[in-house]
Amino acid sequence: MWSEVPGVQVVSWRMLNRLRQESWAIDNLDMMYLDDETLAWAKATDDHENDSEVEFHKDSNNNVLENGDTVVIIKTLDVKGSSLSAKLGTVVKNIKLVDDNKEQIEGRVEGQLIVILTKYVRKQS
């Protein structure tokens, strides 16, 4: 956003506007200066008026989850279609995010790949 290249400024401004629900993005937008011509260019697509939110996979404590994270199951879960039961406190390493559902992750419990709802896990620090 501090670049002197107008194209970089425009892209930065548009990306920060897409993330404007985040306090840090708003802070950066407040600090950013664009001359009138560059600001008009940035607003030309009306992308800044798009109210769609960027959604992230979040655990029970509202921490953002990423591929490869390690989580802990916070409730004993019965796995549908299996006799397996994922016990409270089970550590699931190297999770994979389900792309089309922000409330689901995949992970291996006792060697079996299962889908786990994010509201039943806590990210391990």
List keywords for this structure.
125 residues, three-stranded antiparallel beta sheet
Multimer state? single chain
Task: Please indicate the percent range of residues in DSSP E strands (runs of 2 or more).
Answer: 15-25%
* Mass-distribution shape: elongated
Total strand segments: 8
Low-confidence stretches: none
List the total number of helices. Answer: 3
Q: Which structural class is indicated by helix and strand composition?
A: alpha+beta
The proportion of residues forming helix, as a percent range, comes to 10-25%
SSE topology string: HHHEEEEEEEE
Give a short account of the largest sheet: 3 strands, antiparallel
Average pLDDT taken over every residue: 88
Question: What gap, in angstroms, lies between the N and C termini?
Answer: 31 Å
Query: What is the spatial order of strands in the main beta sheet?
Result: 4-1-8
**Cα-atom Rg, whole angstroms?**
20 Å
What does this structure look like?
The chain has a 3-stranded antiparallel beta sheet with strand order 4-1-8, with no helix packed on it. It is elongated and about 65 Å long. It has helices spanning 6-18, 23-31, 36-43, and strands at residues 71-73, 77-78, 85-86, 91-92, 96-97, 104-109, 112-117, 121-123. By secondary structure, the protein is an alpha+beta fold. The protein is 24% helix and 21% strand. The two termini are 31 Å apart.
